[in-house]
From TrEMBL:
NCBIfam families: rnpA. The gene is rnpA. This is Ribonuclease P protein component. Keywords: Endonuclease, Hydrolase, Nuclease, RNA-binding, tRNA processing. Belongs to the RnpA family. It comes from Stygiobacter electus. It is an enzyme of class 3 (hydrolase). RNaseP catalyzes the removal of the 5'-leader sequence from pre-tRNA to produce the mature 5'-terminus. It can also cleave other RNA substrates such as 4.5S RNA. The protein component plays an auxiliary but essential role in vivo by binding to the 5'-leader sequence and broadening the substrate specificity of the ribozyme. Its EC number is 3.1.26.5. InterPro entries: Ribosomal_Su5_D2-typ_SF, Ribsml_uS5_D2-typ_fold_subgr, RNase_P, RNase_P_CS.
Length: 132
């Protein structure tokens, strides 16, 4: 795994995996409840794997805005995945995370920037780190 990359192996893509994480995972919210994450941890696997997916509801706003939010969440995760990676490798765990917006919308935040998103995603990742 590249330190700052986000390869295909590091993404959750199949509907089966999405359904599994949503049905068996735990929910965590950012401090101001703008973002949430559903995560599933399986310890002592053959290979240490960290997978992530990013979702924004259609009700949140127009497509351009939703795509920007997903890009910003993806970038925040990519730059800060080293928070979780060493611990996952040590414990040989499988960690699957689905990040999504919770109470943020186009109407309330017409312009959204990385500085708004990154602290929230980092806080969620730190909460997940404590549960590994």
């Amino acid at each position: 795994m590249k330190q700052f990359g986000l390869s295909k192996k590091e993404r959750i893509k199949s509907k089966k995996d999405f359904d599994f994480v949503f049905s068996n995972g735990e929910y965590i919210f950012s401090p101001n409840k703008t973002f949430k994450a559903v995560f599933y941890i399986k310890k002592e696997t053959e290979e240490a794997v960290l997978q992530a997916a990013f979702a924004v509801s259609k009700k949140s706003g127009i497509a351009v805005w939703r795509n920007r939010v997903k890009r910003l969440m993806r970038e925040s995760f990519r730059l800060n995945k080293n928070i979780l990676l060493p611990l996952i490798v040590d414990k040989k765990a499988l960690v699957q995370i689905i990040f999504s917006s919770n109470s943020i919308s186009f109407k309330s935040n017409k312009k959204i920037f990385l500085k708004d998103v990154m602290p929230q995603i980092v806080d969620i990742m730190n909460q997940i780190k404590e549960k590994i």
